[in-house]
Amino acid sequence: MNLLILRSLIFKVACLVITIIEIVIFAPIYFFLPHKISWIVPHAWIHSIFWLQKYLIGTTYEIEGIEHLPQGACIIAVKHQSTWEALALVLHVKDPTFILKNELIRTPGIGWYLAKAGMIPINRDVPIKALRAIIEGSRKKAQENRQIIIFPEGTRKPPGAEPHYKTGIFSIYSELDLSVIPVALNSGLYWPKQNLRCYPGKIRCCILPPIKPGLEKKQFMSHLETEIEKACDKLLLSAAKNGNSLAMPPTAVRRLEELGITWKGLIRL
């Protein structure tokens, strides 16, 4: 474990250094590039992060269901466990815009890049105003034929944690009359939130068939949660069966027990 901590620290420091270098190097040109061409810059940065993750930690990834992503406007509802999915989707979605907290836009350096990329910032301290801002911002981005990415639980949760889907996504879905693409993953097993360690293995992400417009609120929310959580369970079970050297978080261990699997491997503190 000591070696894993060391490699994880090197990875995180290297990510920070690369981020600072790329902000400085690309700043003179990035803000003058046309929108679609400017994606070259974050793509290069993310490829660098994933290269470090592969060779320093030993973590790779696999995405299934890319064919479910449309070229035009849609809403992409993503299970949020890690930093990984925010980066990976930028590489694999044609013209993404994220609904994110306003504090990120105000962050010096990275916030300037997020603003240039046309993200949708919200003030979560004022929920009613935030929802209106989300709907209006999403409407504008949909008119620009962009893909709107939202984390329907609002924050990162460890694998296996009890889900809590917020109804704000239904407001966007019903107002914009767009399809919603659910996305399941197990990234929190390998790049966990607020954990010193990152873990080797293969992150798996599954892009599921779209939910068509027109469902009522209760039906939509139930369908969205059921589809994402069912797929996440499958990914968790697969990781458990193929990676006994992996240290599982307690939430994942409990969920495995609920699914009929007794975890005999390592458990994270």
Short description:
The protein has 269 residues and is of the alpha/beta class. It is built from ten helices and seven strands.
Count the beta strands: 7
What topology, given as strand order, has the largest sheet?
1-7-6-2-5-3-4
**Cα distance, first to last residue?**
13 Å
What is the residue-mean pLDDT, rounded to a whole number? Answer: 92
- Radius of gyration from the alpha-carbon trace, in angstroms: 19 Å
Q: Which structural class is indicated by helix and strand composition?
A: alpha/beta
Broad shape: globular
Describe what this molecule looks like in 3D.
With 269 residues, the protein is an alpha/beta fold. The protein has 10 helices and 7 strands. A 7-stranded mixed β-sheet has the order 1-7-6-2-5-3-4, sandwiched between helices. Helix 7 (127-143) packs parallel to helix 8. It is globular and about 50 Å long. It starts with a helix and ends in an 11-residue tail after the last helix. The mean pLDDT is 92.
Task: Please describe the structure with a list of short key phrases separated by commas or semicolons.
alpha/beta, seven-stranded mixed sheet, 10 helices, globular
Topology readout:
Elements: H1 2-30, H2 35-38, H3 40-57, E1 59-64, E2 74-78, H4 84-92, E3 96-101, H5 102-105, H6 110-116, E4 120-122, H7 127-143, E5 147-150, H8 168-176, E6 180-185, E7 201-207, H9 217-242, H10 250-258
Parallel strand pairs: 1-7, 2-5, 2-6, 3-4, 3-5
Antiparallel strand pairs: 6-7
Helix pairs in contact: 1-3, 3-4, 7-8
